[in-house]
């Protein structure tokens, strides 16, 4: 296994990319045209202890994240959070290159409202092939915010600077939510096919012996079979059906449990074990949460 280079600071990131020293210790925006691409070896794995928002346009190459490679020749935005591992695949700039990247350290937002809820931006855990594709207008909006952030940390710092930097980062992330919603919407036919595949996957799983051999399916395992990250799968399902992936799994569990409660004389414990639960109490808790009744109450009333 290749060694992973851990990038712990903005300064270290600038050194790796052969950039000038950063003008702020916790946040930086750099233009991709300023990177000496020949100085970055292909196949090196990096783990950034930083948030990284990458807008790529005007040059080609590949970036690998997780199990997928993504060709980022078109205008796209990729967002990664601290601890994620990416592998450089080599790229080359063109005359039209206009990409940029925003790096910021968790300490920048730690005491802010953004710091408290940044984990709610689920796209930080999407795979690279689930990147955000942006229109020219969307690109302009995001880039203008990047310019405002850069202006704030390059001019004279005052007591308002950090709040304004953080506010613009949050606005950028909120725009990304809107653009991802648009992307889900415009791909609705494809998404409906994926919803059908997911439901078929669960149906076949619960109708087989897998639930006894492996246990309750997880969102992660379902995502792997559908070639999607868990967060992307959940967000896609939420947009199309109103229920996330975990809620779909619970729905199949409850329906299977109802059939067993009414169609067999098995005890609640036996039913729980047959559905992959290690502890019957856990099964009973989920059942009551979803139906408003305990398994025994449901059996007696029906």
Task: Characterise the protein shown here.
The chain is of the alpha+beta class and 302 residues long. The chain folds into two domains: 4-186, Jelly Rolls (Sandwich); 190-301, Homeodomain-like (Arc Repressor Mutant, subunit A, Orthogonal Bundle), CATH 1.10.10.60. It is built from 13 helices and ten strands. The protein has helices at residues 10-16, 106-109, 113-117, 136-154, 161-186, 188-206, 210-213, 219-225, 230-241, 245-263, 268-274, 280-291, 295-301, and strands at 4-7, 27-31, 45-48, 51-56, 59-65, 68-71, 76-80, 85-93, 100-104, 132-133. The strands form two sheets. The chain has a five-stranded mixed sheet with strand order 1-3-8-5-6. The chain has a five-stranded antiparallel sheet with strand order 2-9-4-7-10. Strand 5 and strand 6 (68-71) form a beta hairpin. Residues 62-73 have low confidence and may be disordered.
Secondary structure elements and their pairing?
Blueprint: E1 4-7, H1 10-16, E2 27-31, E3 45-48, E4 51-56, E5 59-65, E6 68-71, E7 76-80, E8 85-93, E9 100-104, H2 106-109, H3 113-117, E10 132-133, H4 136-154, H5 161-186, H6 188-206, H7 210-213, H8 219-225, H9 230-241, H10 245-263, H11 268-274, H12 280-291, H13 295-301
Parallel strand pairs: 1-3
Antiparallel strand pairs: 2-9, 3-8, 4-7, 4-9, 5-6, 5-8, 7-10
Helix pairs in contact: 4-5, 6-9, 6-10, 8-9, 10-12, 10-13, 11-12
Strand content: 15-25%
In CATH, the topology of the largest domain is named Jelly Rolls
Q: How many alpha or pi helices?
A: 13
Terminus-to-terminus distance: 57 Å
Subunit organisation of the chains? single chain
| Total count of domains | 2
Main sheet summary: 5 strands, mixed
Strand order of the largest sheet: 1-3-8-5-6
Given helix and strand content, the structural type is: alpha+beta
Relative helix content = 40-55%
| Coarse morphology | elongated
Low-confidence blocks of residues: 62-73
Arithmetic mean pLDDT:
88
**Rg calc:** 23 Å
Query: Would you list the SSEs in sequence order as H and E?
Result: EHEEEEEEEEHHEHHHHHHHHHH
Number of strands: 10
Question: Could you name the CATH class of the largest domain?
Answer: Mainly Beta
Tell me which CATH architecture of the largest domain applies here. Sandwich
